[in-house]
Amino acid sequence: MNKKKKNIIIFIIVLVIILAGVIGVSIYLNNLKYKYELSVIQDNDIKYYKLEKDGLYGVIDRDGNVVIEPKYTSIDIPNPTKAVFIKSDDGKNYSAIDDKGNQLYADYDSVEAISINSITSNIPYEKTVLKYKQGGLYGLIDFDGKKITENIYNSITNIDYKEGNLKVEQNGSYGVINIKGTTILEPVYDAIMADGYYNEATKYEKAGFILRIVTDEGYRFGYADRTGKIILDTLYNEVSRLTEVKGDDVYLVTSTNGRYGLYKNNKEILANEYTDISFDPNNNLLIVQKDQAQGVVNLEGNNIVPIDYDNIIIGGKYIDAQKGEETVVFDSNGNNLNTDILSYNQVSDLAIVIDKNNNYNIVDSSGNKKLKENYTYIEYFNNNYFIVTKDGKTGVINGNGNVVINLEYDAIQAIDGTNVLQAIKTNENRTDIIDSNMNIHEGIVNANVVKKDNYIKVYSETEVKYFDLSGNEITYKELFPNNTLYASESNGKWGLVDKNGKVVVNYDYDMVTEQNGNVFGVKKDGVWQVIDTSGELVSDNKYNLSWLDVTFLGEYYKINNSTMGTVYSGTVK
Which CATH class is domain 335-475? Predict the structure, then answer.
């Protein structure tokens, strides 16, 4: 090979490498437009709270000091770690102020917070962006006042369950942008909704969009994934996602002229020829119906049970196919089973079964029944413990059928997010706590049970107990060792003691709250007031509050209002 040819080849190779690099950088930079970080704010991070007094709103800080006097028709705190407050005097015109009351972002006609669904976040606002209005149109800015988009939209609102994505309107049509201003969907649709997909790892991040347009024949629906890629064109009478199916594949049920079908991403799995399709998430199976006949198919469209039955009921891993008076039982692979068991629900190495007489039992992997007697209900708890009901009473057994909690309760249920059970005796109106080792801790009469971040609180009008997430009873001092004083009860009356148990506030009260900031709520003769750590009244205000789990900050009491975030009030009741 001569030198000239060699140089040409080297040049081509270098050029290819450079082009590949440029393309790679371009793809990387393009992908960056779709990536954003959601702000996660824990309760301990919060610096500011909304304050209500006599129907007007202001702001207090975490110590209960008034930052903004309650004199506005509304106040929004989009990010409670930042001194940026959106206020309105009339509920129509909005502007931003700081913690000194100085106006922010004065170059714009108005600035507003963007509300989001409170189920999505503990702070019901977009926490990194605001919308501004200029010349009758809206755009986005960040909290430093930096412009993210131009003012080109007729409206900017949230999309339920899709924090970080915003629905934008132009000339009566809707699209989607993200909080970085990247266009996800062009504004050409009559309506856009999130599909509702959720998993623990990514939350709602991988949810896509149901799209709707108006045609001469009526509404038509389609689907786009989370990046805005069109998966189904807007051709269908209905589109819904099977949100229980986990993973990156999107399964969509479509309807055309009253007939249903199934797509996996953009590939047709079942043609639109079924009168109904319903989904069983335990086995990832579909009960399909053609006219009056039902059968079962899997998510790949393969037939499991012939479409030849009057009714299909799926119980755990068993499929009950009814035709006339006869019931045929299949397993989840479509094998015909000769059994009187109609429902088989695998839990750990055992299974809960229900027979044709609606009796419950437990079987091992070989199908041997573990229980000598039948129960009217069995529910798996954990560690091979089962909640069981018989003759209207409920208790707990282990996997061998041995009773570990006597069947003497009217109801037993798990406390979400814990290894703890709450057990209710209706005739005594008492709620007991059962820990993870099946020890019973005597509870409280007329009790309310609430799970906090790292403990369980059981309380009534006159009593309170605390438990860890395994159900062991603990003291509030163990939970919050840095507090100055702690609530203490003696002979039915409440006071406050220090860390050494020395009485600082006498046992004069019907109830007291635990410390929040430097104050405590104290209840006497049905009326609440607020005292400081020396026992002195913070104000003369008296509050007649109807709820039991009362929290005070400064002289203000907490109102539970999920749509507005955490609100404290000074309105005398």
Answer: mainly beta
